[in-house]
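Appendix B, record 7
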Amino acid sequence: MKKILLLSTGGTIGSVQTDEGLIPGIPIQELIRFLSVDESKIQISTETVLNIDSTNMQPEHWVKIAEAVYENYSQYDGFVITHGTDTLSYTSAALSYMLQNLQKTVVVTGSIQPIDAKKTDGIKNLGDAVTFASEGTHGVFVVFGGRVIEGTRAVKMRTESYDAFESVNYPYIAYIEEQEILYNIRVSNKVTGEFRLDSELCSDVYLFKLFPGAKPEILESIRGQFNGLIIETFGSGGLPFLERNFFETVEKLINEGMIVAITTQCLEEGADLTLYKVGRIIDQSKVILSNDMNTEALLPKLMWAMGKTSNAVHVKEIVESSLV
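Structure tokens (predicted):
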């Protein structure tokens, strides 16, 4: 028998309609009433960690979720975390870094419609999540819309469709059809080292999306308020230096000790600063290169790395390393 712990953080899947709109309100114990589980094979326990709309999810909450997994780790074979869809990708990525040497399955899921709605996707998503959590595949995964996604590769692409999430720059791990798991790629279950919680974060990170007409003074204003900066640039990556000179401003911030990461607004294929002059003017030894990481994975990874050290060189090494 597989023992699965269902951890609730709120979100649409457990929301109820009120005069103020949807708000989390269905107790976690009631969610499992909607599941058809073979109790001779799977035993489900529940625990409420949070009960919030995921728009309110903060880095401090990621730590609470990671701690809940860590504290119950020895008692269960797998974990399912119900979560609102809006920030689910950030949480799944953060857990991927904080739960080091994970030797069990942690699944993050949610739904577009509440689980008790007439046309809900919550029952399928929760059932699929429990099914996959019982599989024994090591790591953090997002299960949504019949697809299994590596925890650092999920991106919410749609606001209303039941296939809201896609795997960006990485194949889907598996598909789930009528509780049958059809693997697309096999995840290595070789884990070296003892499982441990590594949850110290530095959340003083500013995310800036570059746009035509943006003024470099925007970045000047964050000096002293943030230790890290992620810039979502255009295309393959680069900084404008005509009319509005972002290059000079960013260089100044780096020289003053700001840790800067360069990524792209394009979802697929990643950034490459070697292609154009606007990219080559940047000293790549002084900035963090996102390569093919999506922003939802890059942001918590930078916070996690900065929680370990304030040394820009060491932070760069950690963030640019393939950890998951």
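Remarks on this record: The mean pLDDT is 94. Residues 245 and 315 are 26 Å apart (CA to CA).
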